[in-house]
Amino acid sequence: MCGSFDTCVKGVYAVPDISRDEVAHLARLSRLALSEAELDEFAGQLDSILHHVKAVAEVAADEVPPTANPGAIANVTRPDVIVPGLTPLQALSGAPNAEDDRFAVPQILGESE
Amino acid sequence: MTDLTALDASELAGRIHAREVSAVEVTQAHLDRIDQVDGEYHAFLHVSGANALVAAKEVDDALSAGESPASALAGVPLALKDVFTTTDMPTTCASKMLEGWISPYDAAVTSKLRSAGIPLLGKTNMDEFAMGSSTENSAYGPTKNPWDTTRIPGGSGGGSAAALASRQAPLAIGTDTGGSIRQPAALTGTVGTKPTYGTVSRYGLIACASSLDQGGPCGRTVLDTALLHDVIAGHDPRDSTSVDVEVASMVAAARAGANGDLTGVRVGIVKELHSDSYQPGVISSFDAAVATLTSLGAEVVEVSCPNFVHALAAYYLILPSEVSSNLARFDGMRYGARAGDDGTHSADQVMAITRAKGFGAEVKRRIMIGTYALSAGYYDEYYGQALKVRTLIARDFDRAYEQVDVLVSPTTPTTAFPLGDKVDDPIAMYLNDLCTLPTNLAGHCAMSVPSGLASEDALPVGLQIMAPAFADDRLYRVGAAYESARGPLR
User: Fold this and answer.
1) Cβ count near B450 (within 10 Å)
2) Which of A113, B7, B49, B406 could, after both became Cys, cross-link A109 (CB 3.0–4.6 A)?
3) What is the pLDDT of residues B352-367, one digit of tens each?
4) How many domains are contained in chain B?
5) Touching check for A18 and chain B: CB below 8 Å?
6) Is B487 helix (H, G, I), strand (E, B) or coil?
7) What is the DSSP-derived secondary structure letter of residue B381?
8) Domain boundaries, chain A
9) Regarding beta strands B78-81 and B171-175, do their DSSP bridges make them parallel or antiparallel, or are they unpaired?
10) Closest CA to B186 of B165, B200, B208, B212
11) Which CATH number is B209's domain given?
12) Is the minimum CB–CB distance between A30 and chain B shorter than 8 Å?
């Protein structure tokens, strides 16, 4: 249980919550081309973090509604009128590469697609 | 001649508006100070001297023409955390991903500061994308604590807090997702407020975790912080979580509090945020602060918020989940850095190469934890369960506020720790936020005000004052009363 300042630091455990292979899979899902050295480092750290945060599962909260956002606002609308936005030049001003008022990106589809 | 950098913002504003000193002189004095000392502290990532002087001159010209000041702080310069977009300075979030990037639009907070006649001295250092508690996660090197340059200034807003503490700026803006305004304030002997969620626009505040992020004011005194709070608060239709409610004047509350009378104010000590495991000097400073509040007439009781012990675990699931989603936008396609685009890689590969190169270790860790917590099979167990715990924490607050007007705790469990001490141990780093993050989970407001120095290391300690949503004025009343009774920090 990661509740207090001291028990959290001293937490000891043996069975990993996440393997190095799973971390590599997470990196792929996260679009992070990590090096082997990074995977080695992150595997232990993510395991340690998950070990602590999984303590939420021990809280009895079956009947408790979730809170995704503390604000009570829903369905914010505005009048359906045109307001000024960015010009194409402004929108493209930070683009790594642009052509003909568009973002230029590397090849998306493979040769056979 | 008076050293203008030694004066509080309220004093500077009074002198500028009375034409005893010009806004240009005040701004120049701070730019000179930055020039002299920031090589040592590294509070700023970018200094914008010429633009700040132009803005100051406009204030002077308007006053010369007989116009009334654009705001109570017109002419008083400010340091802006590098997470708010600015059209005349780079906005990097202290990341290589956004190195040199100039936004095509100003953040709402930036616009409000400009309209209020507040010259922007520059952009301050932070943990990359506001993820961290020490400013060591900045891709451009850490900020040093002005009280002891071998120690961290806190984070993520360490640059803003250090700029205040080292008199490089009389005012600063921070953002607080789990304590990033309050923890640096505590560790640098300055004041910082996390306003109620939805009361300061997030438009143009580059998102870390959208349901937790909140911009807020930082100063060296409670009154200065209140003056800045009133400038930046207000409804903004461009932020769909911005709340359209009338909020009380923080300045009026601070001025009322400064008379030092807290008769009738009920103060709750949160039992779960007071532990023998905290640094002894922090606890003794906190206990002395509580005694001061009692002597001012406050009625102090102990309250229990049993679910706060789960706040850290819930927070470090909710935050990374939102981070993994929000930071997906940094893909090297539309703005920011792009790497690996040499004709041999697909767009998908370029994205992964760009992100691996552009993000630092802590950002990568949080993206992966969030991806894990949101993935099919783990969603209910991790993210879903954390959201339920969040409800329980809010209920604890609600019950406590039935008994008391404000809650108090130490802002942090320890004083500023040495640079490098916790950089390889994420969990040890996360524990800095133990006392601050329940407020973010509930969307409430809280302030850190200096409560003196710890006996064992003579470093600043912060008193955290918490209040319910939309009762931010209570923070200023209690904070100002406490500050007036506390006396000078050193």
Assistant:
1) 26
2) A113
3) 999 999 999 999 999 9
4) 1
5) yes
6) coil
7) I
8) 1-60
9) parallel
10) B165
11) 3.90.1300.10
12) yes
